[in-house]
Design goal:
The chain is α/β, with parallel strands linked by helices. The chain has one domain: NAD(P)-binding Rossmann-like Domain (Rossmann fold, 3-Layer(aba) Sandwich), CATH 3.40.50.720. Helices cover about 45% and strands about 15% of the residues. Strands 3-2-1-4-5-6-7 form a seven-stranded parallel beta sheet, sandwiched between helices.
Length: about 260
């Protein structure tokens, strides 16, 4: 399936209205893809992203759906594929954070995080696989976090969900790799978004000198993984953190 095909490729980006998801939507649209953004509640922000993409000459649409709801996910994917006749790229970016020390974490709060961050990617991936298998080409790109390897206090649910999505990436890659579908994962470090700006300003750079990342630091790699050039990359998790994990490992060894 050459990138020069007449019809543009179609991408579905969950959590696409703000932060990393919005940056990914902008970048994929700039690369010529028709981008369908999904959000659960931030519809005003999503509409702004669509308008910005269209003003730049791209094509985008906004959908409201809860990625943790099976019926809503099935309806979403069915609607997009019927409208476009194809679906080439899925970016599983939607996630929630609800930090609580494990000893005081209620089961419903644990399940809320897992439903959005892990069950959501399972549901969306399962829903898009039939059309990708028919095409013989597809890209599923999951967004994880450095918290899967270096969680902070209170991140038991979040870290577990992100560790799960990395394992899901590898397992699905094994299942569909021979069918022309590539499944990979991007694990950002600390990224400055609307939600983290105040914390970033207060904390500044770490003692190791690493800066806070920008959403665009993540979107470039996601865009590459969505292309034909990434065809030899499968089942991998890429850490994008400005070297933070390496710096911390080095400082521990030096003590």
């Amino acid at each position: 399936m050459p990138e020069s095909a007449a019809a543009p490729r179609v991408a579905l980006v969950t959590g696409g209205s703000r932060g990393i998801g919005a940056a990914i939507a902008h970048r994929l649209a700039a690369d010529g893809l028709t981008v369908h953004l999904v959000c659960r509640s931030a519809q005003d922000a999503g509409r702004r992203v669509v308008k910005e993409i269209e003003a730049a000459g791209g094509h985008a649409a906004l959908h409201r759906a809860d990625v943790g709801d099976e019926a809503e996910v099935e309806a979403l994917v069915d609607g997009v594929t019927k409208q476009e006749g194809a679906l080439h790229v899925l970016v599983n970016n939607a996630a929630v954070i609800d930090d609580q020390l494990l000893a005081v974490t209620r089961t419903d709060r644990w399940e809320k995080v897992l439903r959005s961050n892990l069950t959501g990617p399972f549901l969306t991936s399962r829903a898009v696989l039939p059309v990708m298998l028919d095409q013989g080409w597809g890209r599923i790109i999951n967004i994880s976090s450095n918290s899967a390897r270096t969680p902070g206090p209170g991140q038991s649910a979040y870290a577990a969900s992100k560790g799960g999505i990395e394992s899901l990436t590898r397992a699905l890659a094994v299942e569909v790799g021979r069918k022309g579908i590539r499944v990979n994962c991007v694990a950002p470090g600390k990224v400055r978004t609307e939600m983290t700006a105040a914390v970033a300003d207060r904390l500044g750079a770490d003692g190791d000198g690493t800066r806070w990342g920008l959403p665009e630091d993540i979107s470039g790699l996601v865009a590459f993984l969505a292309r034909d050039e990434a065809d030899y990359i499968q089942g991998q998790t890429f850490t994008v953190d400005g070297g933070r994990m390496v710096m911390r490992s080095g400082s521990r060894r030096s003590r």
